[in-house]
Specification:
This protein is an alpha/beta fold and about 250 residues long. The chain is built from nine helices and twelve strands. The strands form three sheets. Strands 2-1-3-4-5-9-12 form a seven-stranded parallel β-sheet, sandwiched between helices. A three-stranded mixed β-sheet has the order 6-7-11. A two-stranded antiparallel sheet has the order 8-10. α3 runs parallel beside α4. The longest helix has 22 residues.
């Protein structure tokens, strides 16, 4: 098949591109460096010409502001639907986040807006909602460390490998699948515990504290398990500990 990967240079995009190329598919890498901007629409129609399926793994916008993020994702989704419909694309496969239906701010709200905007278009959409990736605790350490202490927001999660999610995206792009698929790792873990293990292995920061970030409207949902998979989710390894050991 000829498959376009939007955001092919990003964390998910790189993995899914590698998987599909290894399977013998022809990949169109939709990236700014390739002259295609899904946000402005520049080069998008040309890039999707002849494409049978699209995987939307567009990179996140640089701002955490809710209006900016939702506007970005809504615009990219509508541009993608418009160009995909004109090109005769069979389906769009989107990577999103488990449990975001009640979230009202930040990246989660942006992904929800992206889902809804894509579903408004004529091309069939398949959504793969993933748990947080194994890399997320390290990113959280970078964002929250001051001095020798990282103050990590309370969150229950079931961390999953990017490669595992990419394999599911590739499978659905090629063979089709249900309208919505949740995918997560095998074990529940508190984000602060995972971050503390990363810190222990690195040797810094010296201490990781779990905090309730009451300035975040989503903090209660994160802390009480809204981001955990439901009973019908695909559960796949490796575990976070196994993933750390292999690095």
């Amino acid at each position: 098949m000829e498959i376009a990967v939007v955001g092919a240079g990003g964390r998910v995009g790189r993995e899914v591109t590698d998987i599909l190329k290894n399977q013998g598919h022809e990949i169109v890498e939709v990236t700014r460096s390739a002259g295609v901007d899904v946000h402005t629409g520049t080069g998008l129609a040309e890039a999707l010409s002849g494409v049978e399926a699209v995987i939307d793994a567009v990179n996140i916008p640089p701002s955490p502001d809710t209006d900016v993020v939702t506007g970005f994702f809504r615009t990219t989704a509508r541009n993608l639907q418009r160009a995909a419909a004109a090109a005769g694309v069979r389906r769009i496969v989107l990577v999103s986040i488990i449990g975001i239906d009640e979230f009202t701010s930040g990246h989660y709200a942006g992904k929800l807006a992206q889902e809804r905007a894509l579903l408004e278009g004529p091309v069939p959409v398949r959504i793969v909602r993933a748990a947080q990736f194994h890399e997320f605790p390290a990113m959280m350490l970078e964002w929250t460390t001051q001095g020798d202490v990282a103050r990590v927001p309370a969150m229950r999660t079931q961390l999953v490998a990017v490669r595992t999610v990419a394999e599911k995206l590739a499978e659905i792009a090629v063979h089709d699948g249900p309208a919505m698929t949740d995918i997560a790792g095998p074990e529940e873990i508190r984000l602060s515990v995972a971050a503390a293990e990363v810190a222990r292995r690195r040797g810094y920061p010296a201490r990781v504290e779990e905090v309730a970030d009451t300035s975040d409207p989503n903090h209660g949902l994160q802390a009480t398990g809204a981001l955990l998979p439901g009973p019908d989710a695909v559960i796949a390894g490796p575990t976070f500990a196994e993933w750390l050991t292999r690095r």
